[in-house]
Amino acid sequence: MSRQIIISSLLCGLLITAAHAAPDSQGTEAHLVKSLQAINDNHLDIALSEVDSLLQTNPNFKLAQLVKGDLLMARAGAIENFGSAPNASHDEIENLRDEARVRMQRVLAQTDPKLKPRFLWQLDAEQKYALVVDTSRATLYVYENVNGEPRYVTDFYITIGKLGTEKAAEGDQRTPVGVYFIKAELPKDKLADFYGNGAFTLSYPNEWDRKNKRTGSGIWLHGTPSDTYSRPPRASNGCVVLANDDLDKLAPYLKTGITPVIITNQMSWSNEQDLNGRADLLESVEQWRKDWSSLDTDAYLKHYAPTFSNDSMDYSAWARQKQLVNSAKTWIKVGLSNVSLFTYPEQPDLVIVNFEQDYSSNNLSNRMKKRQYWLKQNNSWKIIYEGAA
Q1: Pairing between strand 380-388 and 149-157?
Q2: Could you tell me the CA-to-CA distances from 25 to 45, 133, 274 in Å, in that order?
Q3: Partners of 221 in beta bridges
Q4: Residue 73 neighbours by CB distance under 10 Å
Q5: Looking at the predicted structure, is the pLDDT value of residue 26 above 60?
Q6: Which residues contact 271 (CB under 8 A, 6 or more apart)?
Q7: Is 178 left (phi over 0), alpha (psi -120 to 50) or beta?
Q8: What is the C-alpha to C-alpha distance for residues 87 and 94, in angstroms, rounded to an integer?
Q9: What single string gives the DSSP state of each residue in 63-85?
Q10: How far apart are CA 249 and CA 33, in angstroms?
Q11: What phi and psi, each to the nearest 5 degrees, are found at residue 25?
Q12: 3-class DSSP state for residue 220?
């Protein structure tokens, strides 16, 4: 079997596209594509030079090691398939094949940087950056907050759970899908080598996860062991894993308690319908504020769905509490600031609303960060969860 047939079979036709592509990126995937393209063109010396260059920078890059080994075997006419080294683990070779496909796709199917993820409806002033993880493309995107709107900055190859996404239970080796926030930074010297250059913990399980009885914990963004450059697309126990140098590049964009991390099965882009939905929701939030400030408790409670619950009470208990509290008030003022809106992956009519609430009344004043989950039901926005952020 010729080397060209082997590689073309591996990449399911992607190299046909690569032969006409001229990747401008100087990153890992670009070097890999150039090497495989040279193999496709039967320029093995060029391919070997490219992969050698890649290994000089990343000596623990197993996929590049495999390609180099195959190139050396091809020179001797001893190769029959991609990763045909003797005694090679079948599972490990399949994992590296998956990594090759994903990295090729990342280079050859670049998304338009002008597109905006539909999940980032609005960022507040403190959220300088936001992350969106597209598990279908093994890619973590970084967006900058420009006057509340997201603007593409960069992206990184990532690894997710061995069994994919939709985490539901402790130990299921799946990565959760949802809207999370950076909770804490764990430095390298406090961790085992397995986590690489450090870790950032995520707020899984969030309020929606708990409402849906999802269990488990310890979902992190973290690096790779010191003897490993990168891991296959599905190889973690549920965490989102980056190469150590990529984690180092990502770290300056992250702020504990502030930076949102949206994990989705597939990226979705903003459109006119999203703009209309955002405007409608912001109007509903403002009306909620006005009704609360007016001491019209009945009007205020109409903003809450019958299925509303927080961590301690359902709708009935919530309504009784609000009626009791408001009966002791002669006036209320409620101000909202730093409002952010995030649509929930796989739940197109669910939006997380975060804001700073400045509350004052005749007998109480406080300021707090609050989080609400608004669900669109019968063309009307209703609150299904509310609590401190």
Answers
A1: unpaired
A2: 22, 20, 32
A3: 200, 240
A4: 16
A5: no
A6: 118
A7: left
A8: 14
A9: HHHHHHHHHHHHHTT---STT--
A10: 22
A11: -65, 140
A12: strand
Q: What is the pLDDT of residue 139?
A: 96
Mean pLDDT in residue range 351-368: 96
pTM above 0.90, yes or no: no
Q: How far is CA 17 from CA 23, 79, 104, in A?
A: 11, 24, 10
- 3-state DSSP call for residue 29? helix
Q: Which of 33-37, 122-126, 133-137, 225-229 has the lowest mean pLDDT?
A: 33-37
Q: What is the CA radius of gyration of the chain?
A: 25
Nearest to 199 by CA among 143, 256, 126: 256
Q: Tell me, what amino acid is at 196? A: G
| Inter-residue contact 342 to 372 (CB < 8 Å) | no
**Residue corresponding to tokens 């279908």:** 136
Q: What tens digit of pLDDT does each residue of 110-160 get?
A: 889 999 999 999 999 999 999 999 999 999 999 999 999 999 999 999 999
Record the tokens describing residue 114, joined without a space.
């002008």
Q: Which domains occur in the chain, in start order?
A: 3-108 (no CATH), 120-264 (2.40.440.10), 272-388 (3.10.450.50)
d(CA 202, CA 234): 19
Q: Quick check: helix, strand or coil at residue 182? A: strand
DSSP SS3 for 282: helix
